[in-house]
Amino acid sequence: MKIIDCQAREVLDSRGYPTVEVELTSEHHQARAIVPSGASTGEGEALELRDGDQKRYLGKGVLKAVQNVQKEIAPAIVGKDFVEQTILDSLLRKLDGTSNKSHFGANAILPVSMAYSRLFALENKKSLSEGIAHQFGTSGLTLPVPLMNIFNGGKHADNGIAVQEFMIIPAGFNTFSESLRAGVEVFHQLKKILTKKGLTTAVGDEGGFAPKLSDEKEAGPGSHEKVMTLLLEAIDSAGYKAGSQIYLALDCASSEFVNKENKNHTEYWFEGSGRTSNEMVQIYEKWISHYPILSIEDGLAEHDWDGWSTLTQKLGKKVQLVGDDLFVTNPEFLKKGIDLKVANSILIKLNQIGTVTETLDAMRMAHTAGYTTVVSHRSGESEDAFIADLAVGTDAGQIKTGSASRTDRTAKYNQLLRIEQALGSRAKYLGKSAFKI
To answer: Distance between CA 388 and CA 412 in Å, rounded?
Structure first.
């Protein structure tokens, strides 16, 4: 497949900040991709290059990244044949020459890589999910269980709640579409409940509600359990059974409330008190005994490896323990986790590592080690639904792509509905068995 043109432009993400879109053209087809952007980010993530010019977009412009595509990457790939993704991505990494994509910026490299995936699929008369399945060596028939973020805290809200995401998992259904419908109905029931209680129903970056539950600046003891109780009430009001049809999940994003002055990163400020790693583990242990929690993401901070080891030993057979900031979709960090028997799942974010090939490498390593994979959006998203096809193409089994509102989130759900319809009777839905616990 010969690339005959490569164009980049500055476009807007779901938060109204600039991001990069790349358009690749072959002799027969054209494909484009938009790179997302995160708010809560791990230290090991590939670099997102911003201009820093305060006179444009508050310093968040990406004209440097766009120029890197136009002036550096395009001349190296236009007019050349690339028979597979790994060859293109290897060249992009070589051109950049850094371990964290800091020369060109991951936001310059990744949209080229993503656009190539689409172009490759078109050239081979395949859908994007089929093209990814071809690269990954899977069936590409599994629709993912959605982890729907319907209540926001942490860096995604301003309500004093430390935990960043409270999710519902409609896993007790036979198809993706049934599962999605149940999740959407719970979302709307939660809105009604919040309204009756006189709480705000404005939504956060990922489409979940973010009300303040008290007048206190910082949530006190029991505040997080109040949120989970609200979710159970919404599940019941929607006519579903918590613990058999719909479950709960948490993204604690604890690197955001760890005491960074503690050099060992083993002290946390939570519900108005300082907590040790062991005390946080005890809190989670209590929660999963009282609430139908299937998954806990980033329960401890990214540098707290000893704490993660304890967390995994205590809870690893009871609940899915997802590493996000811990692994940042990086095979090197994931291998360390596997060797240390830390966590049992990895969150997959394309822009944490910067190419499609490296993303697939991390997923392949996880699957080989028996870890589950959760394909994920970022807080700064777009209309690009690439991750929906990625989840199906790799048979990941799980997807995190936000709540049941905001087009940047529902675009992914709608794409999954299209894929499910196209697959027809071949479509698989794993339900709770996707969590391997």
So the answer is: 5
Element at 176 (helix H, strand E): helix 176-196
Q: On the CB side of 8, how many CA atoms lie within 13 Å of its CA?
A: 26
What architecture (CATH level 2) is domain 142-435? Answer: Alpha-Beta Barrel (3.20)
Retrieve residue 241's tokens: 């059974």
Within a 13 Å sphere around the CA of 36, how many CA atoms are in the beta-carbon half?
A: 28
What are the residue ranges spanned by the domains of the chain?
A: 3-125, 142-435
User: Is residue 349 annotated as a catalytic residue, yes or no?
Assistant: yes
Write down the pTM of the prediction: 0.96
Q: Which of 341, 432, 381, 328 is nearest to 44 (CA)?
A: 328
Both tokens assigned to 87: 């060859």
Question: What is the CATH code for 3-125?
Answer: 3.30.390.10
Instruction: Please report, in tens digits, the pLDDT of each residue of the chain (437 residues total).
Output: 899 999 999 999 999 999 999 999 999 999 999 999 987 677 889 999 999 999 999 999 999 999 999 999 999 999 999 999 999 999 999 999 999 999 999 999 999 999 999 999 999 999 999 999 999 999 999 999 999 999 998 877 778 899 999 999 999 999 999 999 999 999 999 999 999 999 999 888 889 999 988 766 666 678 899 999 999 999 999 999 999 999 999 999 999 999 888 766 689 999 989 999 999 999 999 999 999 999 999 999 999 999 999 999 999 999 999 999 999 999 999 999 999 999 999 999 999 999 999 999 999 999 999 999 999 999 999 999 999 999 999 999 999 999 999 999 999 999 999 999 999 999 999 999 999 88
- Catalytic-residue membership of 279: no
Give me the catalytic one of 60, 101, 191, 349.
Answer: 349
d(CA 99, CA 434): 33
Residue of 185, 206, 256, 358 marked active site: 206
Residues 396 and 139 sit within 8 Å (Cβ to Cβ): no
CA distance 215 to 229: 19
Using DSSP bridges, classify how beta strands 30-34 and 18-26 pair: parallel, antiparallel or unpaired: antiparallel
Task: Give the Cα separation of 197 and 210 in Å (integer).
Answer: 14
Query: Which two structure tokens, joined as six digits, stand for 35?
Result: 């790179």
